[in-house]
Design a protein that fits this description.
The structure holds 2 protein chains of 2 kinds. By secondary structure, chain A is α+β, with helices and mostly antiparallel strands. Chain A has helices at residues 2-22, 200-205, 334-342, 365-372, 397-417, and strands spanning 35-37, 49-50, 68-75, 81-87, 92-98, 108-113, 119-123, 133-137, 142-150, 165-174, 177-179, 193-194, 210-217, 223-228, 233-240, 250-255, 261-265, 275-280, 287-294, 308-318. Chain A is built from 5 helices and 20 strands. Chain A is globular, with a radius of gyration of 22 Å. The chains are: A alpha+beta, B alpha+beta. Chains A and B meet through strand 4, helix 3 and helix 4 of A and strand 4, strand 7, helix 2 and strand 9 of B.
């Protein structure tokens, strides 16, 4: 199994390297997650660097709860980096710090500060190796701040630690997650658990209807979830895990209400994570079923040996068009905001009018302003032109190549030892 | 008369503001204007968070006036919602006796908080011309108003204070009158002398 994963990782790395080398322009436009570089001075709460979430962290087809940001920075002895970002109450915030050595030597810590400046959560080693990771439901709306420092800096003032490392800080926000019922009983199509999508509190968070559920997969396990999909709406589903798909290799299947497979996916998301975007339910199928399993389980009956925890994010889009995406290009930018601005004062064309973000039947500047928070780029800059590469993952090529090479060296070293 | 009725309706409409968690006020500054030609008036907002929530993320303000007395000639927007057009979208639309002034910021909430540190600030400066005619005074009043915080939530407006405009009284010019009289006297005398 590991050899298989290693082989697939190596293949992916080679493909990405080739794509970089020859400058392929074959892929459809999909904005890559642009890393935001750290800008000093950002060493205090007061000088925290603002970070604008981009919705591309999860998937380009997602409504706003899939927003996130990737920040690159470095910490030296005595240094601490603060970043500020805005969150709505009830969002599920995930903070992860990644280093090139995967936490083998570097030992970062993170602290989370609420809008009043109070330190509400810290973490040292919840991620891989010595890497920290935080996840919590945000109780109040406002500007939250996260600090990245080195082990020992309990006050996040940089005064105690002596760590030196470069890092990538991943921030993501999603609606509150449900949890897989215990004991696990959703291992087949017939016993699938229902996901609450497109109604109630979720619509209050995201008019498109989004939900997140957390679950666990062990060897031989499969989780089935049913999703009601109203006529004319599309389903987008994506799976995430704590290490961003670097190690675990889930697979995802979408089935009709008659247990017919509609789409399988393995690695369309970040790393080895699967993603299914904008799938329309077939006629006569009022519900869709999502099956989560591990790599190798071609029949989704549990024949795999993967083990991971996951977040399944499911969104219902209005007839293929996301809220605020007026021109239907799956990317909210100034073009869409301009269209909403020009239409202010007009009634919405219907319940799925992408210009009517708050669904009050009127297009107003409130809709326009709400939609700016969904923009894929800072200041709602226009959608980036299609770039060379495969699916916008070319930025990961050096990391994948290094990882592959390291694994090769490790395997060789083990062989020599034996 | 129609203009007056429209203005009254607009003023009535200004009281129908959305309910929000925070209250702000709008005003036109100066509140009393005396002009004989072109003049400008600032649209000012006050009562926001000041370097913190709530910040203003967007506004859509209608201002009514007597079109037989005033002519709207243009508007310039402040920078508190970001610089137009890269950081904000702004514009005006006009009707008879009505101008709609609107702007949506493209900045992140934290950036808006940082920009809007003052207790009150100017959203836009509106320019008008006083039209020649029998009407010598009028008002600039608020109509339907929508203010948004940084997250797209409506902010309530507790007060909206318009402005009054009156025509400058004609100023007599004694020097010109004297020159004219002297000229007239000289001409008369010359004519008499010629006879």
């Amino acid at each position: 199994m590991r050899e298989r994963k290693r082989a697939s990782g190596a293949l992916l790395a080679i493909l990405l390297a080739i794509g970089l080398a020859v400058g392929l322009s074959l892929a459809p436009a999909r904005p890559a997650l642009a890393a935001v570089p750290e800008v000093e001075p950002n060493g205090t709460l007061a000088t925290a660097q603002p970070v604008v979430p981009a919705q591309t962290l999860l998937t380009t087809a997602f409504p706003p709860p899939g927003s996130g940001a990737l920040v690159t920075g470095s910490v030296a002895p005595g240094d601490v980096d603060y970043f500020a970002f805005d969150l709505a109450a009830g969002q599920l915030l995930t903070v992860a710090v990644v280093t090139d050595d995967e936490g083998a030597l570097a030992d970062p810590v993170v602290g989370l500060f609420d809008p009043t400046g109070a330190l509400v959560a810290t973490d040292d080693d919840s991620g891989p190796g010595f890497l920290p990771a935080l996840r919590l439901v945000v109780p109040t709306a406002g500007t939250w701040k996260v600090a990245v420092s080195g082990f020992g800096d309990v006050h996040f003032d940089g005064s105690i630690h002596s760590e030196t490392f470069s890092y990538r800080l991943v921030l993501s926000a999603a609606p509150p997650a449900s949890t897989e019922p215990s004991p696990d009983h959703n291992g087949s199509f017939a016993t699938a658990d229902a996901l609450p999508v497109g109604g109630g509190a979720f619509d209050a968070v995201a008019p498109g209807g989004v939900t997140v559920v957390t679950g666990n997969i062990t060897a031989g396990d499969v989780d089935y979830w049913t999703v009601p999909v109203p006529p004319g709406r599309t389903l987008t589903a994506a799976l995430y895990d704590a290490d961003g798909g670097a190690l675990a290799d889930p697979v995802l299947r979408v089935l009709s209400s008659s247990d017919t497979s509609l789409r399988d996916d393995d690695d369309s998301g970040p790393g080895f994570l699967p993603e299914v975007a904008s799938l329309t339910a077939p006629t006569g199928s009022p519900t869709l079923t999502l099956a989560v399993s591990g790599f190798g389980d071609a029949t989704f009956d549990g024949s795999h040996d993967e083990s991971f925890g996951y977040q399944l994010v499911v969104a219902l889009g209005p007839s293929g068009a996301m809220v605020c995406d007026v021109n239907g290009d799956h990317y909210v930018d100034s073009t869409d905001i301009n269209a909403i601005f020009a239409a202010r004062g007009q009634p919405a064309s219907g319940s799925t009018d992408p210009r009517d973000a708050d669904r009050d039947g009127q297009i107003t500047v409130l809709d326009g302003r709400a939609c700016t928070l969904q923009c894929g780029s800072p200041n709602c800059a226009p959608k980036p032109a299609a770039s060379c590469g495969l699916v916008g993952l070319e930025a990961l090529a050096p990391v994948l190549l290094l990882t592959w090479r390291r694994r090769q060296l490790r395997a060789a070293a083990k062989g020599d030892t034996r | 008369m129609k203009a007056l009725v429209r203005l009254c309706l607009l003023l009535l409409g200004s009281t129908l503001v959305p309910v929000g968690a925070h209250a702000v006020s709008l005003s036109l500054v100066p509140a009393t204007i005396t002009a004989s030609g072109a003049f400008s008036v600032d649209l000012v907002v006050a009562g926001l968070g000041g370097s913190g929530p709530p910040s203003l993320g967007a506004f859509d303000v209608k201002i009514g006036f007597d079109s037989s007395f005033l002519d709207f000639t243009g508007a310039s927007f402040g920078a508190v919602l970001g610089a137009v057009p890269l950081e904000a979208i702004a514009g005006t639309t006009t009707g008879i006796g009505l101008v709609d002034v609107a702007e949506i910021s493209l900045l992140a909430p934290a950036a808006l908080d940082a920009l809007q540190s003052a207790d009150s600030f100017t959203l836009a400066t509106l320019s008008f011309d006083v039209l020649p005619g029998p009407v010598t005074s009028g008002t600039l009043g608020f109509g339907a108003t929508t203010l948004s915080d940084a997250f797209g939530t409506a902010l309530a407006v507790t007060s909206a204070t318009g402005a009054t405009v009156s025509v400058s009284p004609a100023v007599p010019e004694p020097a010109a009158f004297v020159v004219f009289a002297v000229g007239f006297a000289i001409a008369s005398r010359a004519r008499r002398g010629a006879r």
